[in-house]
Structures are given as structure tokens and as C-alpha cells.
Amino acid sequence: MGSVWKLNSFINLSGLPQSEEEKARVLCSPAVKSVVCFCLGPEGTNISQAARRWIQRLDIVEKSKVLLFSTPEECLVEARKVKEAGIVAVFWTCAVYAKEAEFFFTNPDVLPFYFQEVMRLNFMQLATRRAVFNSLEVQGGSFVLPDSWIIASHPSPKYLVRPVYSDENIILVNSNAAAAKHCVDLFSHACITTEKARQIYNLKTVHTFGSPPMVFFGGITSHGAQVIKDAFLLK
User: Fold this and answer.
1) d(CA 189, CA 3)
2) CA nearest to 36, candidates 95, 99, 83, 105
3) Which of 3, 38, 185, 211 could anchor a disulfide with 75, C-beta 3.0 to 4.6 Å?
4) Distance between CA atoms of 129 and 106, rounded to whole angstroms?
5) What is the pLDDT of residues 99-143, one digit of tens each?
6) Is the pLDDT assigned to residue 157 strictly greater than 90?
7) Helix (H, G, I), strand (E, B) or coil at 34
8) Alpha helical stretches, state H, the chain
9) Would the pTM count as exceeding 0.90?
10) Is 37 within 8 Å of 93 (Cβ atoms)?
11) What structural domains and CATH numbers belong to the chain?
């Protein structure tokens, strides 16, 4: 004989604005008092830059703020705590986040992809401390990378150094900006990071991987969805 289970369902989309224009109009309306973005930190991550770009593009800077946390999961936990009337919490992830599928299917009561921002990555690069940089040898116009180097990296971009370094050489951290801090704190020889984080931590660029376009996702909780629905009805 089987058991009676109450299975989860995805959040109801009825009543929510669907087009980007409608979403932007609702967030700009007086019915939405504040938009709080929860992003992966520390300062300098691609995700936090994408969230700020989104805020500026929608022209809601004056009623928005960005809060930084250690993991996307922590961002969702904090976003769920927002219950005040008229406040929309937006938790941000990235299309290449290694746990994106798990994140989506284990949280059917939220809408992880409700908002989207396409932004070129902030010049992903291999960077190191100035003292280490100054000690590097150059052959044929390229740096000679020591086999013994330990590289700090978020799990997603670690494959960028695979032609030279194996997993034994890579220390995993929570973000690209955290990788830069890990390097400057002398825990690793170099890091895979962003240009903004490189500037913040005064590192030197060893190699630039490039700046391709990336999709960033702004998710909303059930509370945020209700706030948006209510505001949309007032149009």
C-alpha cells in the first residue's frame, strides 16, 4: 500500500507581467516601494555588476540596493526573509552556475529566471600579486607559468586554466572576487578573477581570457511575485 504525499508545484504565473516592458513598468511604479538585490560577493563579481547594470537600465536606482553574500544559496535564504509590503527581493544567479539546475528544481516556490540581464563578462583573467608578477620569466612574448602554482578559482571558470593546471593545483572558492582576495591574502599564487576585482585588490594581469556575453538571472520569491502581481493590477 502506498503513502499519500503532498508534492511541490511550481509557482503560479497567472497575474504576473510577462514582457520585459511590463516588468520594468511595474518595478518603476509607486506600488513597488523598494527593490533589494541579493548578489554573490565580495565586491567585484560579475553577478553584482550585472545586478547594478539592471537597476540602472530600469531606472530604479533611487529605490534599489545591492546586498552581497557568500553563495547564491545564501542569497535565496536572505531574499526569502523579505516580507514587507511593497518590497521586492531579487536574488541573482548566472547561466553558468554549476548548480543552476539543482537550484531551480529544489526551489519550485520561487521564479529564479524572472528577470534577465545580458552583460559581457568583466574581462575574466588570470591575475597575481605584483611581487609574483615581477618574478615571472618571459619567453617569446609570453609568461612562463610555474607548474607548482596554486590557482584560486570559482568552480565554474576553473576549466580556463586546465591546459596548464590540473584540479590538484586549483583551490575552489565561492566567487571570482573571493578568488582575488584569496590570492592577495597569500593563500594562492594566482587567481581567476574579474577586472574590477583585480583593481580592488591591486593585482597584476598575467593572461586575459576575454569578455564574452553572459546571461544573468534575477529571481523572485513568492512574496515578491505577489507584490508584483498587486502592482500590475493597478496599472
Assistant:
1) 55
2) 83
3) 38
4) 40
5) 999 999 999 999 999 999 999 999 999 999 999 999 999 998 889
6) yes
7) strand
8) 20-28, 46-57, 72-80, 100-105, 130-134, 176-184, 195-200, 222-233
9) yes
10) no
11) 20-121+214-233 (3.40.190.10), 124-211 (3.40.190.10)
